[in-house]
TrEMBL record, chain A:
The gene is qoxD. Its EC number is 1.10.3.-. GO terms for cellular component: cytochrome o ubiquinol oxidase complex; plasma membrane. It comes from Mesobacillus subterraneus. The chain crosses the membrane at residues 12-33, 39-60, 72-93. Pfam families: COX4_pro (PF03626). This is Quinol oxidase subunit 4.
From TrEMBL, chain B:
Its EC number is 1.10.3.-. Residues 23-199 form the Heme-copper oxidase subunit III family profile domain. This is Quinol oxidase subunit 3. It is found in: Cell membrane. Keywords: Cell membrane, Membrane, Oxidoreductase, Transmembrane, Transmembrane helix. One of its GO terms (molecular function) is cytochrome-c oxidase activity. It comes from Mesobacillus subterraneus.
């Protein structure tokens, strides 16, 4: 926690710079390359997850304080439920009628 | 509030009550993740049902989306600096960065409202198609969160000006910071899976 309380907010600046690179990198991959739709979605989806991780760990200090284990379990579980809801909904709603 | 104060920790973690409040807010954010997941799920299912109306490519303007994204991303950074200054007990710096955060958030909202008005003028309303219904609900819920966040932060600034930095106001500011960063996390996924995907399709 010490590095957050004095000196220069270096981890914030690094996190901000990385977020910008990831955002514009994703836009570049999506709009300026001629990769297949599937490849583009895998790449920019991965970049989005990385960027979310930067926000959680570098800006939201998820790994500090006494409750960091509970925080991590809570957010990872929520992310799991989110994936189940989104992927599950799309899967059920798009594959059902055609079979 | 617990009388046990651990002065070695940052202000917002110093009392048991504060630690419980912060943990509780993380649990709330877990529920928010699931709320947005349901909206992303709906958009994922209905995003290609155009009912003869406009598609993503017809209405999205990538330049404006990139400006909105930059505004919100920068506001998340300035929010982080605000908490950084709070931990150095620099109230002036903290409030200055918090005001920057609000201005950037306000700029984001302005762009989003303008974007929605533009869509409606193009004939792309909530009633036009399932794609646009799910789009406006997802984006609108996020925009509503940003709006509530701005009101929340204004009240927070007033309280900090009145009471100064105490374990209670520091905890409130820290929790608002968590909320604001979370909105940026949601926006990253909107940017990727609504705007970029819509323009690649």
């Amino acid at each position: 926690m010490d590095q957050h309380s004095k000196g220069f907010p270096i981890s914030h600046v690094i996190g901000f710079f990385m977020s910008l690179v990831l955002t514009f990198g994703a836009a570049w991959v999506a709009l300026q390359t001629s990769l297949s739709m599937k490849a583009v979605m895998w790449i920019i989806g991965t970049l989005a997850v990385v960027q979310a991780g930067i926000q959680l760990y570098m800006f939201m200090h998820m790994n500090e304080g006494e409750d960091k284990v509970a925080n991590n379990i809570n957010i990872i579980y929520s992310a799991f439920i989110a994936v189940v809801i989104v992927a599950g909904s799309i899967w059920v709603m798009t594959s059902g009628h055609s079979h | 509030m617990s009388a046990k104060v651990n002065a070695a920790l940052p202000l917002e973690y110093q009392t048991e009550q504060n630690r419980m409040n912060i943990l509780g807010f993380w649990v709330f954010l877990g529920a928010e993740i699931v709320l947005f997941a349901t909206l992303f799920g709906v958009y994922g299912v209905l995003g290609e049902r155009y009912a003869g109306g406009p598609t993503q490519k017809d209405i999205f303007i990538i330049r404006d989306v990139l400006i909105q994204t930059s505004l919100l991303l920068t506001s998340s950074f300035t929010m982080g600096i605000s908490i950084f200054e709070m931990r150095r007990s620099n109230i002036k710096g903290m409030l200055m960065w918090l005001v920057f955060t609000l201005l950037l958030g306000g700029g984001f909202l302005f762009m989003e409202v303008r974007e929605f008005i533009h869509y409606v003028h193009e004939g792309a309303t909530m009633q036009t198609s399932a794609f646009l219904s799910s789009f406006f609900v997802l984006l609108g819920t996020h925009g509503l969160h940003v709006t509530i966040g701005i009101g929340w932060a204004i009240l927070l600034i007033i309280q900090i000006l009145q009471r100064g930095l105490t374990p209670v106001t520091a905890r409130k500011a820290f929790i608002f910071g968590l909320y604001w960063h979370f909105l940026d996390v949601v926006w990253i996924f909107i940017f990727t899976f609504v705007y970029l995907q819509g323009l690649v399709m």
